[in-house]
């Protein structure tokens, strides 16, 4: 799987079988339903599926007709995503290259319930423990096939922009995990880009010296740290470090060892003592792996 992905990335090749036949995907609107930092989201129909078309601005053709360097990663991750099969990973149908001139659109299932923050806002009585297990199982599967997520977090700016979505059966699905790696290296070296992810970011990604690392690199452990932060958010309904607006302040607190507190009102929602202790362990230097969430 990884070998095929690397070869496709190196030579900027997308297998023809990944390209969806012309006319098979139909847009349902003339305008995108969401505008993200690096992608526009359109709604469409593919066969019997309602689908999302994610058009990534980074892949617009340059004036000389060549694609940007990020195309390597796009090709590699598209190949890997297409071959993943798991109940907590968003199904990926293929790539549309017809609707958007000089751009490629990833086609995946549409999530009518939106992202996990929006879903919990609309369904406050939802089973939050089940949703946390869904996320943990999805992440464990990615780790089992040697994929690091890199930028796991919730989003509150738009219901249909997120990397944690909820499907019709109230199951949490991870998405965009492969494409997060397109941006994570850039994010770690760019303060403005990292700012939006700072509240979920492990301390060693902010400053690798805290764990005696030579450089900041996404790892299984940094993914688990971010997962625990999202799970804390699911049970509390609060943004991590919500009381501190400047991200620079959040960064200073995290590097000093400060972590979010556990509110009493989260206990009836399922945040038990055992789960609270597990979250704290995931924020420590010696972290558990994702599969330990349900074992």
UniProtKB/TrEMBL annotation:
The keyword Kinase applies. It comes from Obba rivulosa. It comes from the Eukaryota. SUPFAM superfamilies: Protein kinase-like (PK-like). One of its GO terms (molecular function) is protein serine/threonine kinase activity. InterPro entries: Kinase-like_dom_sf (IPR011009), Prot_kinase_dom (IPR000719), Ser-Thr/Tyr_kinase_cat_dom (IPR001245), Ser/Thr_Kinases-Pseudokinases (IPR051681). This is Kinase-like protein. Pfam families: PK_Tyr_Ser-Thr. PROSITE patterns: PROTEIN_KINASE_DOM. Residues 27-295 form the Protein kinase domain. Keywords: Kinase, Transferase.
